[in-house]
Amino acid sequence: MPRKLPAASKPWRISGISVGFIRGGIYYIDRTLPGRPRFKRSTGRTDRLAAEGEYREFERDPAGYVQGRSRAALWDDAVKRYLRYSALTAQNSPLHVARQADYFANLHASGRFHSIHTFTASDVRAFMAWRANGGVGGRKVGRPAVNRDLAALKALMSWARLERLTANLADTEVPQLQEDQGTNAPREIPEKDWTAVNRRLLELWRLACEVLLGTGLRYGELARMAAGDLRPGGLHVPKAKRRKARTVPISIRTVNAAKKLLKAGGVPDDAASQLDHRLRVACRAAGVTFYSAHELRHTYATFCLRSGVPLRDLQYRLGHASIRTTEKYLHALAAQGRHRNVGAPL
C-alpha cells in the first residue's frame, strides 16, 4: 500500500517513476535504494529542471551526494566562496567578478551542475552542446562564448582542488574548443588614423587613448590606475588576475596625459564599452576603419618591436604570462610587411 503523503504534498515523478514529493513548491527526494537506508531530503529547488538535475546526481552516486551535502560544498556554496576569493585574493575588478558570476549562472542553468563533487565529463560536454544550441536565452552562440563558460568552470574546479574541497577531475578531461585562428590578430593603427580620431574625441576619452597608446595597458588596468602608480621609473601596474606587478616605462607626454586623466576622474571600469562606442562614432566621422580600445594596446606592442624592444622585455611590459602570447605580435608584423610609416605611440 503506498505511503500516505501529507495533505500539503503531492507526488513528484520522473518518467512515471515516483522519486519523491513536492511540498510548498520545493522538490524533495524520497527514495529507498537496495542495500541503503531510506533517503528523504529537500533538493532546495523550486524549478523542475533543476530538481531533476539534483535527482540525477543523487541517483548516480547516493553516497557522494549525501557527503557533498554534509560538507556544504554544493555548487552554490562553492561558487560564492570562489567569487569571494576572486575579488579579495586574486584582486579582480568588480566587473570581472560579476562576469564570472554570469558564467557560473549559465553552467547552473543547464541543470547539470549542482555539486562540485559528482558531475562528470559527459555532463560538461552536454552543457557545451546545450549552451551552443541556445540553452541560455534561446540564442545560439559560438565557440568563444562556450569557452568562456568552460574556462570559468575550470578555474572554479582548480581552486576547489587546491582548497581540498573536492578531488573531482571531470573538467580536466574536456579541452577548450578550438577557435578560429587569426580572427583577432593584432592590428597596428596607423598614426594618421588615430591622430584624426583623437581630434574628434572629448578630452577625457582622448586622454584615455593617449595613455593606452603610450603604455600598452589593458583597459581595466587603465581604469584602476591611481596617482600613486606614477613613479620615477614609469607607470606601476599592480598585481591583478594572477599577473605579477610590473612597471612600464613611459614618456613625459604620456605622464602628463595620465595626470590630466586622473585629475578628470579617470575612466569607468566597464570593459571599454563606452570608449569603444565613442571610438566607433569618431572613426565614422574621420572616415577611418573602426578600431577598438584594445587595438591601441596592439599598436603599442607592434611599435615597440619595430623599435627594437626585445621580445622578453615586451612580454614584461604587456604583462603576458606566456611568451607565446607575445609572439603573436611578431606574426602580425610579418603579415603587415613591417611597414615603417605607421607612426609612433605617444
Q: In what range is the share of β-strand residues?
A: 5-15%
Indicate the low-confidence ranges by residue numbers. Answer: 68-73, 338-342
CATH topology of the largest domain: hpI Integrase, Chain A
**Any idea what the shape is?**
elongated
Helicity, as a percent range: 40-55%
- Under the CATH scheme, the architecture of the largest domain is Orthogonal Bundle
The SSE string, one letter per element, is EEEEHHHHHHHHHEEEHHHHH
The first-level CATH class of the largest domain is given as Mainly Alpha
Question: How does this model look, in words?
Answer:
- By secondary structure, the protein is α+β, with helices and mostly antiparallel strands.
- It folds into three domains: 9-59; 75-173, Tyrosine recombinase, N-terminal domain (DNA polymerase, domain 1, Orthogonal Bundle), CATH 1.10.150.130; 191-336, Orthogonal Bundle (hpI Integrase, Chain A), CATH 1.10.443.10.
- 50% of the residues lie in helices and 9% in strands.
- The protein is built from 14 helices and seven strands.
- A four-stranded antiparallel sheet has the order 1-2-3-4, with helices on one face.
- Strand 6 and strand 7 (246-248) form a beta hairpin.
- It starts with 8 loop residues before the first strand and ends in a 10-residue tail after the last helix.
